[in-house]
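Changelog note: in this version the structure field was regenerated for every chain. One regenerated record is shown below for reference.
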Amino acid sequence: MRFNMFWCFFVVLFCSVQCYSEEDLGYSLNIGNAIDVFANYGDLSQVTQVISADYEGEEGDGEDEIVPFSEKNIRVFSNVTSKETMGDVDGITNMELLLCETFEDLLDAYFKNFHIQGTGKPWKAFMGDWIHDEIMRTFGIEYDPKPDCCFVLVKLTKVHKTVELGNLDGVVIKDYVRRAIEDLNITDTAEVRKFMKSYGTHYIDSYVTGNIIYQVFKYKRRGFELLRSYISLRNTRRTGTANLRFYFSSYFLKQVGDIRIASGNKTIETWARTNLRDGQYLYSRPSLLRLNYNAVLVSKLNSLMDKGALIGLNLKTLRPIFKDSDKAYGFAEVVENDLLLWEVNA
């Protein structure tokens, strides 16, 4: 009798812990699936390939498959639909020049296609725990403890595919999620956070895979203002690329950053450093500007670029899984308040 009671207790306990099946658990990009943003907050770049990492002692032969996303995610909707759009057949898009007054502006600019509902600083979720020296190394520039300078981020993007979640009207919630919601006391913050750890905080509303090749130029403030004026003027009337090159001369710059690629593919980075060299006076240096007036190099780079990077992501809070508006509001409030606290402390 006691054995039967113990066995029943064990079965109930196991079922309460094993709340979802293995087929509902994933570690790749699954549209509509939920993730717990706080599980790796501050270092989401560890489980997503969003920027080139270049750690000391790291050796890569470029043969290992590059995975854009490997964060734990859970299926919470039973019948979601999605729309998939393949990238431009021409491959690499036009060159972007993003002007950044501060280093934080640079991070905002790089992560401009990443959105996490509840925070205005998504880059902090990916790199907030990194020290400045590590972050700057990923951007190919040297650490400066007292930077009286500005930055220009030059980048070219190649989109592999874009996937967007369909309309959630009438969508069915998985049974184990529905039962957990019914049992959830939304007024108990500790219980809500326990729910978040089990079922996630946000769902994947859309994502973009592909690659980005980028380079950072560190400017003297006067040179930065002159470049900004030139670009403003260029937007009102067409000017030649030679004029643009002039504003990227050593007279205006404090440092020319290394060329990096979001997927971290060292083979492509090496090719870029060797072939994308811009001659100025008595020396040459790596520069993405070379692509602005050499179609042959653009074509070659396009053939080399892999699709191993996550270049866009939109995460939305799990409000739609709550049919009760009070529970939906209470859940989102805890998630967004926690996000603000983590953002401030990152």
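Spot check on this record: Residues 1-18, 55-62 have pLDDT under 50 and may be disordered. Residues 31-345 form one domain.
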